[in-house]
Amino acid sequence: MNLAELPVQTGWQAELSLAFERRSERSILAGNSHRGPLRVQKALYPEGDGVCQTILLHPPSGVAGGDQLQISADVGPAAHAQLTTPGAGKWYRSAGPEAAQRIAFNVGAGATLEWLPQETIVFDGARARMETRVSLAANSRFIGWDILCLGRAAAGERFTNGRFDLFYRVDRNKLPIWLERGGFSGDDAMLTSPAGWAGNNVCGTLLCSFPELPQKAAALLEALRAVAPADHANHGLTALPGLLVARYLGDSSEVARFWFIALWQILRPVCCGRPAITPRIWNT
């Protein structure tokens, strides 16, 4: 076979696989393997041994057409892991190939996972796919959010070309408690329709699930609904069977993030039994 016949591979093929374990009173990063430009530097303990904080790094700083990222984390029984990112994720314009990020989290018996990334910015002309799957044991705990920005608002950019597809599933004890699938092109009518994005360019979803939620949902909703986004954008809070959901639809990723942080500060002590200590990386 000559060089002209070899298959052409475009984009980064990157994988990151993490495993957390509880050893005595300490949650540790017991497994950390990576391929390509995805990694974590080290385990951090800003609030003591009980919570292992890791910061996911993607050195290229953005996802280009053809990039394929796979991230997985297994949180073992009784361990507590907190995952976050140092800055906004960026999905660049593509000349044709689709870029994808696939996330798989498994949270074992009595374990806790906090998935608190900063916002994702989808540039005009990007072709992107994001998939997230979370598998919870019968008595595990989870708080996670995602904030999606269509276009670079600071530059006056709108998402008028390209394609974005989204899949998000949360299972508890092998049964689905959240299943969301969506997709649209840059010229999709749903981006301007009152039944869709209504002309906004930022949406966010926060999910929280823990075993005692059914008994605590009413009081939690009352406390959470007393906190509103600073820009008074469209938002809502709902308690579903086994899951609490917060939604933001507006034009500011910063406002969405600060609102989610305010909700997390209320939710974390109830869900995780710990006060909300803001990750220092968010302030840099």
User: Distance between termini?
Assistant: 51 Å
The proportion of residues forming helix, as a percent range, comes to 10-25%
Q: Which regions are unreliable across 5 or more consecutive residues at pLDDT < 50?
A: 1-8
Number of structural domains: 1
Radius of gyration over alpha carbons? 19 Å
Largest sheet: 10 strands, mixed
The best one-word shape is globular
Number of strands: 17
**What is the typical, i.e. mean, pLDDT?**
92
| Strand percent estimate | 35-45%
- Structural category: mainly beta
Count of separate DSSP helical elements: 2
Which sequence of SSEs, written as H and E, runs from N to C?
EEEEEEEEEEEEEEEHEEH
Provide structural commentary.
The protein is mainly beta and 284 residues long. The chain has one domain. The chain has 2 helices and 17 strands. Helix 1 runs antiparallel to helix 2.
